[in-house]
Amino acid sequence: MKNHLILLAILPFFFGCSDSSFNNNNPYLPNYTFTIDINMNLPAYSNLQYPSNAVYYAGVGINGIYIFNTGSGYNAFDAACPNQAPSSCGIMTLKGINIVCPCDNAEYSLFTGQVTGQSGLQYPLKQYRVEVNGNVLRVYN
User: Which helix (H) or strand (E) covers residue 36, if one does?
Assistant: First the structure.
């Protein structure tokens, strides 16, 4: 009986764990499922081998994605403005280590996904998962 009570006490901890380290919910942006593999040996993606470099990859997510080398890993964010419904002006553009939403001129850090220098915006960039396998990055939702 004592063993059953211990098992029942420990069991909720196993079901309470999640492999997701970030919340990807945003009412403005829909969730699309995708998986892509980026070979950093190819010339189009070789800049990703060096810290603080970003590459735009079109055709996945909502408006394409930006993949960024942080120096200690990789981040992938959707290129759709996170605080507006998808529109023709909603494809973000690269500006150094930030990306800028042309609809409202808000800048977002590619290190954190958070807005920089502006307040009143509720949502960060829509982030995707990145796995590293040698010189291949797998980006998925």
Answer: strand 35-39
Q: By the 8 A CB rule, do 90 and 80 touch?
A: yes
Query: Which residues, in sequence order, are CB contacts of 32 under 8 Å at separation 6+?
Result: 60, 61, 62, 141
Residues 32, 84, 18, 132: is their CA dihedral positive or negative?
A: positive
pLDDT given for residue 122 in this prediction: 87
Taking a C-beta distance cutoff of 8 angstroms, is the pair 127, 24 a contact?
Answer: yes
Taking the C-alpha atoms of residue 45 and residue 55, their distance in angstroms, rounded to an integer, is 7
Q: How far is it, in rounded angstroms, from Cα 90 to Cα 92?
A: 6
pLDDT along the chain (141 residues), means of 10: 58 52 76 95 96 96 96 96 84 94 92 86 93 96 91
User: How far apart are alpha carbons 61 and 73 in whole angstroms?
Assistant: 21
Question: What confidence score (pLDDT) does residue 72 get?
Answer: 96
